[in-house]
Write a structure and sequence with these properties.
The chain has 139 residues and is α+β, with helices and mostly antiparallel strands. It contains four helices and five strands, in the order H-E-E-H-E-H-E-E-H. A hairpin with a 5-residue loop joins strand 4 and strand 5. The structure holds tetrahydrodeoxyuridine.
């Protein structure tokens, strides 16, 4: 169980990270904040590229930052996205990010789609990626 203050903190950090987005092509700014099982938070933003393909989403930025610092066990992620001059949406993670979550996160991993620190939708990874393929398939 993740307490309400922690969820609000995660959501606010995701919202704040939108200011670091590099999204000159889509003008769609996304921030994220992922919580490790031992209580650390790593943040991310989307970083686009003129060749389009190398662009990376906010969620994967946060995950690769955490994994590269030795953290592989996660409890939750908050995501905040919307057009640069528009309102925040309940911005769901793309399919590639869901699959990357699947690599490291349990089915009960929480995904918060934040419009503000207190206004968010809550899902689990199992909700958003049912019948998935993962590391156990290769055992
Ligand atoms: N994007 C994310 O960073 N996360 C999402 O959950 C959805 C989409 C980014 C990718 C691209 O930079 C921009 O939003 C528009 O698709």
């Amino acid at each position: 169980m993740i307490d309400a203050n922690t969820v609000q903190d995660l959501c606010q950090k995701a919202i704040d990270m939108r200011s670091e987005s590099y999204a000159p092509y889509s003008d769609f700014l996304v921030g994220s904040a992922i919580l490790t099982d031992d209580g650390k938070i790593f943040t991310g933003c989307n970083i686009e590229n003129s060749a389009f393909g190398p662009s990376i989403c906010a969620e994967r930025t946060a995950i690769v930052k955490a994994v590269s610092e030795g953290h592989r066990d996660f409890a939750a992620i908050a995501i905040a996205g919307g057009k640069r001059d528009g309102e925040l949406q309940y911005c769901a993670p793309c399919g590639v990010c869901r699959q990357v979550m699947r690599e490291f996160c349990k089915p009960s991993f929480k995904i918060y789609l934040a419009k503000s620190a207190a206004d968010y939708q809550e899902f689990t990874l199992a909700d958003l990626l049912p019948e998935s393929f993962g590391p156990e398939n290769l055992e």
